[in-house]
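Batch manifest, entry 17 of 40.
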Amino acid sequence: MKKILLYSDGSSLGNPGPGGWGTILKYNDIIKELSGGELNTTNNKMELKGAIEGLKALKEPCDVEIISDSKYVVQGINEWLKNWIKNNWRTASKKPVKNLALWQEYVKISQQHKILATWVKGHAGHIENERCDTLARDEAELLR
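Output type: structure tokens
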């Protein structure tokens, strides 16, 4: 399996408001940047959308490390998702999972891959995270 580094970030100008996501895929020396936006969204939706769109761009099953400054995305993938599915998309406090359609899309698109999510501190000089942040903010600004 190819080892892919997938960096992603999301942004929302207002919460909700116009938002964007940015993703960088790295395989050896190959780098691909992706970005997009939505008119009325939240930062958490855009954070998750960045990871989803990065996974969608992969053409075959891969060993993927998703690197994000979103604890929501990282904990969702690594810790919460299995129990949400087991509990019929309910949280530990029995409330419906927020952003259900996106999490279900993530589950569908992620099944063929081996995935680990890693958290990095945002706005701390991490080159790829800073670039993803710029991509996401630029997309949100286009929709303002």
